[in-house]
Structure formats: C-alpha cells, structure tokens
Automatic annotation (TrEMBL):
Keywords on record: Signal
Protein name: Sulfatase
Keyword GTP-binding annotated: no
Pfam families attached to this UniProt entry: DUF1501 (PF07394)
Residues in the signal sequence: 1-41
Superkingdom field: Bacteria
Length: 463
C-alpha cells in the first residue's frame, strides 16, 4: 500500500500565501474551496479497501486486567463439581464459578448472570473461547493486544486501520481512545510508532479521569475569530512547511502540519459530538448514565463511542479498569460488571436500532484471561492465564449466537478452535476490507505489518 504524500498539503500552503497576497476577501473565498479539496485528498481521506468490507468501523471494548471466562461466557460445570481439588500446580486448588448460568436467546448460547445485559444479546455475539496469547503479564500482553508485539514498539491496530482505510469525517479524528490507561504501555497502545504520526490515536481523558471531566484541550479559542485563527495558523504552517522541506524524511513534521489542520477543523464539529445533552433522557438511562450510578462513567464512554462512529470516526476504543482479581473475585467482578454490563448492552441495542450493528464491528475482551485455580484458601480469586481465554465480537459480518473454540474442561488452555491474537488481528482487518498480508509499511529496510509474519483469517466465524 502506498502512503499518501504531503505534497498536496505543501502546495496548498504555498497557494495560501499567494491568495493572501491577492485581495483578502476573494482570496479566502478561493481558500475555502482549496480547504475542501485538502479534506478530500489528505492522508486521512477515505481509501479503497483491498476487498469488499463487511464492516465500515470498529468499537473495541477493552476490559483491562483480564476478565474470567468461566464467570462470563465459557460454562465450566466441571469446576463446580471439583472445587477444592488439586489444580495443576502445587498448593493450588480448583475454584467453582460464582454465578448462575443459563442458555440464552434462540441460539442457546451459555452466558452467566454476571453479564445479564450482554446475555440479552446472545444471538448477536460471536464468542471466541479458544483465545490465547504469548505472555501473562499485563504490560506486554496489553501491548501485544493493541500492537501485535510485546517486545518492540509497533503501530497500534487503530493506527493501522486509519492508515489502511482513512476516515469518513475529515473534521474529526479518525481514531479515538477514550479513557486510555496511563500504565501498561500507556500511549503506545494507541500510538503510530513508525507509521506517519497523523495516524496515531487521539486520547480523550485517561483511565483515572471521569470521562464527563475529560476534554480535548484548546478546542475553543475565545480570543480570535475563525478568520484570525486561520491567518495565525497559516503563518505557523509556513514555518512548519519550511522545516518539512529541510527534512522530508521526518514524518513527525507532516504529522504536526496535519494535526494543526485537523484541530482547526475539529472546532466546528467535535464539541457537538461530545455533548451528550442532545440525547434523550431515556437513552441516557438505558446506558446507565446518571449521578451516583456505577455505570455512569463507562456508559458515557459507550455513548460517546456510538456518537463518534455515527459521525464518521473509523475506530474508537473505550477502556474499563480493572478486572484483575487475584483476590476478591466476587466483589471485584461484580463491581466491574455493574460498571460495564448495562452500557455494553445498551450500545448493542442502540447500534441495532439505528441499523448500524451490521456494518460496525464491536469487540470485547481483555489482554488475557484467568486461571481455573487459586492458591488462596478462601477460593475467592483467579490469576493470569494467557493459554486460554474468551473474547467476543458482534456485528460487522461475524456469526451471531455462535461460540467458536473451547478450553479444556477446566479452562486451563485452549484446545479447540484456537485463535491467537495474530489471528484475531488478521480477522479484524479482513472484516474491515483489508488483507493483513498486504497492509504493509516499509521501515528500516523491511516491510512491517500488524500481524508480522503470522496470522490467519478465522473464516469459521464469518457470517
């Protein structure tokens, strides 16, 4: 895939100066038309996919810390029978599932009462119970989940999607990360690495800041009119362009140029997208939004994600913390489900009612799963498990009411329908119209891709 060059932007900047040296009024009328051309032809403009896509956009519901499959979407009755028996390792005992399970929907998919709102959408869920990854520590596992590599700095999946497909709205960021974590890789989880900087994600807030307080800084300028801001930006961009000509290999300069232009355009649209007051009270309540509600923060994230993809953002990630219950499993998982389950159910309902679920890929999961045993004497905890865990997908061309793969009868490791993260990434790209073997970027003398030299499209889950 060829990379859009910044030549058009540089020519446009030169033409701005010519226009401004002519008559001011007519110059800016002409400039308005040029700005529209830039929006259509810039590096974030929509690009042709490799093949007809099943999904146009994606929302990733990141459950940081690793939710337990045997408490959510993979029924393990054998654990209930054998609780207290010796586990695989010394001094470890098997732990039963702590919630009731039922078959849900017409498909009869097993889902626990812990996630009862998601259970209502069982017929839309494609449950991947044969997931496995390479490492069971949070930071490297999160980096591998987001970038395909735990050892090296690589572009995030969202950056690859934006690089490959562009964005459908030139007045908004094409890739947004809402409430991203400050640790476990931090900005690398939504960064562009060696891809041109324009493809990195735009963060809204962070995991420690309630999303209702999160803002994108300096989105409004109370001192200057739009025309005066444009003139000021033209001067700054002329300096940036001069620097870019001195060092054409430095994509960061081009990224700055494009980000300034995007920031200028965002002023007209982003505040309205982030303003939830336009939503009805019943919609806010359906997402669990309200003062004092445990679901208020994540509900706002999910509703913002829907509003953003509806406005043309290509990829949105929302993040919850923290499913890492080595102890206090019941209390901890109950708290995380109370915070996220209703908003996720509402998001799926909302997308479906708006006719958007069929071409929106929704992905749920953490960086790994949890063990079926514990060293705790109170049997109220589970530890990290990278060998077998569960994620789910919905919409966007996947089979609904379908469970693919399984771990062994106790949940230690994936034994059927094994899906590595490289396979998941290849499948996500495929659903969005991209061939993971062709979506490449040449850097340091070799071609890189999200899946490196691995990955297969999991065709068994395609609708």
């Amino acid at each position: 895939m060829t990379i859009p060059t910044p030549d058009f932007n540089r020519q446009l900047c030169n033409r701005r100066q010519m226009l401004k040296s002519a008559t001011c009024g007519l110059g800016y009328l002409a400039f308005a038309g040029l700005a529209q051309q830039q929006a259509q032809a810039g590096p974030l403009a929509p690009k042709m996919p490799h093949h007809p896509p099943r999904a146009r956009r994606m929302i990733f519901l990141h459950m940081r810390g690793g939710p337990s499959a045997m408490e959510t979407f993979e029924y393990k009755p054998e654990l209930n029978v054998r609780e207290g028996e010796a586990g695989k390792a010394k001094n470890r005992k098997l732990v039963s599932s702590k919630w009731d399970w039922k078959r849900r929907g017409e498909s009869g998919l097993w889902v626990s009462d812990l996630v009862k709102h998601q259970a209502e959408h069982a017929d839309d869920l494609c449950v991947l119970s044969g997931m496995h990854t390479d490492i069971a520590n949070h930071t490297p596992a999160m980096l591998q989940l987001h970038t395909g590599s735990f050892a090296f700095t690589r572009p995030s999946m969202g950056a690859w999607l934006l690089y490959g497909l562009g964005s459908e709205n030139q007045n908004l960021p094409g890739f947004v990360s809402i409430s991203p974590p400050l640790i476990n890789g931090g900005t690398k989880n939504y960064g562009a690495a060696f891809l041109p900087a324009v493809y990195q994600g735009t963060a809204i807030g962070d995991i420690k800041t309630p999303v209702r307080q999160a803002k994108i800084g300096n989105i409004n300028n109370p001192q200057y009119t739009s025309t005066l801001q444009r003139e000021q930006l033209d001067v700054i961009q002329s300096l940036n362009e001069r620097m870019a000509r001195r060092d054409p290999a430095d994509s960061q300069i081009d990224g700055v140029i494009e980000s300034y232009e995007l920031a200028f355009r965002m002023q007209s649209e982003l505040p309205a997208v982030m303003d939830l007051s336009a939503e009805t009270q019943s919609t806010l309540e359906s997402y669990g939004i309200g003062d004092g509600k445990p679901s208020d923060n994540f509900g706002r994230q999910c509703l913002l994600a829907r509003r953003m993809i509806e406005a043309g953002v290509r990829h949105v990630e929302v993040c919850d913390e923290f499913w890492d219950q080595h102890g206090g499993l019941v209390k901890g998982h109950n708290a995380r489900a109370a915070a996220t389950d209703q908003p996720i159910g509402a998001l799926l309902t909302d997308l479906k009612q708006r006719g958007m679920l069929e071409d929106t890929l929704v992905v749920w999961g953490g960086e790994f799963g949890r063990t079926p045993d514990t060293a705790r004497k109170d049997f109220d905890g589970r530890d990290h498990n990278a060998n077998g865990y569960t994620m789910w997908m919905a919409g966007g061309g996947v089979k609904g009411g379908f469970q693919y793969g399984a771990t062994d009868e106790l949940g230690y490791e994936a034994v059927e329908g094994r899906v590595h993260l490289h396979d998941l990434h290849a499948t996500i790209l495929h659903l969005l119209g991209l061939d993971h073997t062709q979506l490449t970027y040449r850097y340091a003398g070799r071609d890189f891709r999200l899946t490196d030299v691995h990955g297969r499209v999991v065709s068994e889950i395609l609708a």
